[in-house]
């Protein structure tokens, strides 16, 4: 624990601890160390967060300037920065559902489930008896249980990729089941949705801690002895989240706080204005700003030419 007022971090959930074998863990650890050293040299570090989301962190580290939440989309909520083909028919399907009734399930562009876990998730969604929209990427090497698609019928909408920000803003969506990547976390918060947390690696476990323990706008899952989240556990947590109005109330409370921070006069808006003023005062000497070390990124395979 860095501070008694900050969210605790389990040593097993540190980003490099989820990286595979010892050699891979070492690479990730050294990269994290280089980034940390760079941050310590910076006069300012801007963050896609807000004081309202992480007050203890920003009080502890005043050189961090939160200017968010910033979303990866244009003013029409069209997503940018990804390469997957969106299935816009899901919005038409949402139009046909009752208000605040749909479970939205998405695990980002990288996270994968093995066949056993995928099957349990599929059957858990079926047992929930709730309408759901599930993003199943085309690069996921899995198969649905026999007869599954026919059984769930029109109650389930399965797509390869979705216009997520438009989906989350739709009045039919009740909650998001997420891997808790930071972008998805910010998008869920901005749209006032409670979370069902399914973290897979890196910072996602810490984000789950914030959602479940600090903000209290979501629930996590408990794995069985084989490390599997069972269909019964999924059904139970869906019912608990949607059956307790306090989760939605908390989500709406946080939504108001984080969206107000980027409006004129808000904390993030003011931080951005101050940052711009600081750059102008620095002029050509703003090389002290923190930028990622490109040579190190090339060395560890994060850039290609």
Automatic annotation (TrEMBL):
<dbReference type="InterPro" id="IPR002213">
    <property type="entry name" value="UDP_glucos_trans"/>
</dbReference>
<dbReference type="GO" id="GO:0008194">
    <property type="term" value="F:UDP-glycosyltransferase activity"/>
</dbReference>
<dbReference type="Pfam" id="PF00201">
    <property type="entry name" value="UDPGT"/>
</dbReference>
<protein>
    <recommendedName>
        <fullName>UDP-glycosyltransferases domain-containing protein</fullName>
    </recommendedName>
</protein>
<keyword id="KW-0808">Transferase</keyword>
């Amino acid at each position: 624990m860095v501070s008694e007022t900050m969210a605790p971090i389990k040593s097993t959930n540190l980003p490099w601890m989820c990286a595979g074998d010892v050699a891979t863990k070492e690479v990730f650890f050294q990269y994290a160390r280089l980034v940390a050293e760079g941050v310590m040299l910076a006069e300012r570090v801007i963050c896609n967060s807000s004081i309202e989301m992480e007050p203890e962190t920003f009080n502890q580290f005043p050189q961090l300037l939160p200017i968010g939440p910033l979303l990866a989309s244009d003013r029409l909520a069209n997503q940018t920065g990804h390469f997957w083909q969106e299935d816009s028919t899901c919005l038409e399907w949402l139009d046909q559902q009752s208000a605040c009734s749909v479970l939205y399930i998405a695990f980002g562009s990288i996270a994968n489930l093995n066949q056993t876990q995928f099957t349990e998730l599929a059957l858990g969604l079926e047992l929930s008896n709730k309408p759901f929209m599930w993003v199943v990427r085309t690069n996921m090497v899995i198969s649905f249980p026999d007869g599954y698609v026919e059984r769930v019928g029109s109650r389930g909408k399965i797509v390869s990729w979705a216009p997520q920000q438009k989906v989350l803003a739709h009045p039919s969506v009740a909650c998001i089941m997420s891997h808790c990547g930071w972008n998805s976390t910010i998008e869920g918060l901005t749209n006032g949705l409670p979370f069902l947390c399914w973290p897979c690696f890196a910072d996602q476990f810490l984000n789950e801690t914030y959602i479940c323990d600090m903000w209290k706008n979501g629930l996590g899952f408990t794995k069985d002895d084989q490390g599997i989240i069972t269909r019964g556990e999924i059904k139970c947590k869906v019912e608990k989240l949607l059956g307790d109005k306090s989760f939605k109330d908390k989500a709406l409370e946080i939504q108001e706080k984080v969206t107000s921070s980027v409006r004129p006069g808000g904390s993030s808006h003011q931080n951005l204005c101050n940052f711009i003023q600081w750059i102008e005062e620095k002029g050509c000497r703003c090389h002290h700003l923190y930028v990622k070390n490109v040579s190190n990124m090339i060395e560890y395979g994060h850039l290609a030419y």
